[in-house]
Amino acid sequence: MPDRAAVDNLAAAQDAPSPAVVVTARPQTTAARPYGPTDEELELLAFGARLSQSVFAQEFTMTVGLGAGLVPSYEGSNQYVFFPAPVIQGNYKGYAFAARGPGLFVDLVKDPLFPKVEYIAGPIIRARFDRVGRIRDTVVKQLGDRNIAVEVGASGGFKVNRIFDRFDSLTFQVDALHDIAGAHSGAIVTPSVSYNKLLGTKGVINLSVSGDLIDRDFADYYFTIDAAGSAASGLPAYRAGGGLKSLGASALLGFDLSGDALDGGWGVFVLGSYSRLQGDAADSPIVSIRGDANQYFGGAGLTYTF
To answer: Could you report the per-residue pLDDT of 31-62, keeping only the tens digit for each?
Structure first.
């Protein structure tokens, strides 16, 4: 399956603050201003002034889109299928929300305009469709389909702005989810680090790394082969345990088609990711015999901001 960070960053790449700021005229001289704002502060304020007149200054702002890409037919597969990648991201009265895979995350922390550090905390709900149909491998298909998992939990972290220049950031975040639908009935924790860089008002680049930690219930549901499954598929019986499931990295490029993202409208994105299964997940026969521990995802699509 695609690296969670790849799909998640798709929404994050469209993110922009929803400011309301009044800016005084910039002095014509570049001489030292011992009691005034610095050049960096003036540039940020000027950008804030543009934002205050942009689509992102509205009480409600939203980006929607649709893309498509190639993903493994199940996590650990070496066969790929086309998969839709919807984009939903927005801000309502300072509360940000975004698609998180096939699900939703809401950030309940309001941060001031252009802080050095922003804080992230809020609930997540998502569905997991791994091995729910679309299995291309005829042997793995004999193990039967899995049920849809409904995972709920929370995400928390922080973002440090202005790392190398005035318009980049580094985000540290952890998602913790537990299945409440009685599918795998387990837990998954995903720490991630991402670097985001605005390309002026024309676009954005986002790079991220992440890992997945799972408990025994999760591992058993997706990677164990019991005696009945072994008899049906011909694969050896195997019992998977919890621990580190995967490590991955992703990259995303987004561009506004008008050349100015502040006026909203149409945009395009391209993304790709690579992850490698680890530990008991990688050693499962559905991966080591029938699939591949190396997992790739690539996709592209259109967005519209209003």
So the answer is: 444 565 666 666 666 666 666 666 767 778 89
**What is the spatial distance between Cα 147 and Cα 1, in angstroms, rounded to a whole number?**
16
pLDDT of residue 49: 64
Residue 19 has pLDDT above 50, yes or no: no
281 Cβ partners below 8 Å, 6+ apart? 75, 76, 214, 219, 222, 223, 240, 245, 246, 287
- pTM (global) more than 0.85: no
Find the length of the chain: 306
Give CA separation, 232 vs 141, 143, 146, 215, in Å.
Answer: 10, 7, 15, 26
